[in-house]
Amino acid sequence: MKKLLILFLVLLICLPSIIACSGPTNSINPDTSSIRDAGSIRSVWSTMTSNTNNNLAGVWVSSSSNAFAVGDGGIILHYDGNNWSLMSSGTTDDINGIWGSSSSDIFAVGYAGMILHYDGHTWSPTFSGASDDFNSIWGSSKSDIFAVGRSSIFHYDGRSWTSMNSGNQGGINGIWGSSESNVLDVCAGNNILQYNGKTWNTIYSINGGELSGIWGSSVSNIFAVGVFTDLLNGRSVGVILHYNGSGWSHTTDLPPDNFLTGIWGSNGENVYVVGDGGTIWRYDGNGWSSPPSGTSVDLSGVWGSSATNVFAVGKGGTILHYRP
User: Fold this and answer.
1) Residue 257 resides in a domain
2) Domain span holding position 52
3) Which member of 5, 121, 148, 207 has the greatest number of CB atoms within 10 A?
4) What is the pTM of this model?
5) Count of the separate structural domains present in the chain
6) pLDDT tens, N- to C-terminus, the chain (324 residues)
7) SS3 sequence, the chain?
8) Residue at 260 is within a domain
9) Would residue 255 count as lying in a domain?
């Protein structure tokens, strides 16, 4: 009896220590550290006041105090480093893409062959001769610009726009180039086209896919994004393709569940991809990660002026700003 009493007293004294030692170990969640990390990343992307509910399709940025966003209903917004404000576009038609060679030489494209030009003061229409919708625009200089759309490619030489024959039957969603003799398009019909300074040629196709955006840091480091439908199970997932100078491949086994729509990078080791459901992917030169965006709204475009000044735009006037 005495021995039992002594054992009871020992247990009574040690029990709090046992609980204190075992409690934290049992409560450790393998996801705790990643959740904490996600929180720190989330604070880097902030939602901005855009002063519009219109869907935004594209964004172009020249500096931390000069950014432009375009979208449905002829909306054009300008950011001066503090606030976004509405600009007069002169149209109520949808604007799908924007690109500039400088802050006083910017082009916006959209519905029924529309091309608008900004000279640093006002937006004005320019005649393209096209009738199909334009989806995107890019140039190597102010006298070498390409506008692409539903079934056409138009080129601007600094004086006028002329039609080009791409040989592609599907719509063209995105465009990027490293020079005037190396320009690449991505198509709704799953093709990647290349312009060599003379002709357009199909250089890659993805079966069952639709590509929507393309960007690269050099001729041997190019990324294309979109959606891929697995014909075996009918499931559609986002896809990221990479060109390393010798061939195209899927860059990652990570399963992005949403349609990926836009891509931009400050260099080859800092690349951003956006998509449906608030999806944001980032490539750091070694692999892809998916930092929380803080929104579930579909995102359609991304652009920046540096690694620490990036904007993403999407539905309902959504504008996100990355500034660590």
Assistant:
1) yes
2) 34-322
3) 148
4) 0.85
5) 1
6) 444 334 433 334 443 333 333 332 222 222 222 222 333 344 489 999 999 999 999 999 999 999 999 999 999 999 999 999 999 999 999 999 999 999 999 999 999 999 999 999 999 999 888 999 999 999 999 999 999 998 789 999 999 999 998 877 678 999 999 999 999 999 876 789 999 999 999 999 887 778 999 999 999 999 999 988 776 666 778 889 999 999 999 875 555 567 899 999 999 999 999 999 999 999 999 988 889 999 999 999 999 999 999 999 999 999 999 998
7) CHHHHHHHHHHHHHHHHHHHHHHHHHHCCCCHHHHHHHHHHHCCEEECCCCCCCCEEEEEEEECCEEEEEEHHHCEEEECCCCEEECCCCCCCCEEEEEEEECCEEEEEEHHHCEEEECCCCEEEECCCCCCCEEEEEEEECCEEEEEECCCEEEECCCCEEEECCCCCCCEEEEEEEECCEEEEEECCCEEEEECCCCEEEEEECCCEEEEEEEEEECCEEEEEEEEECCCCCCEEEEEEEECCCCEEECCCCCCCCCEEEEEEEECCEEEEEEHHHCEEEECCCCEECCCCCCCCCEEEEEEEECCEEEEEEHHHCEEEECC
8) yes
9) yes
Q: Is residue 123 part of a domain?
A: yes
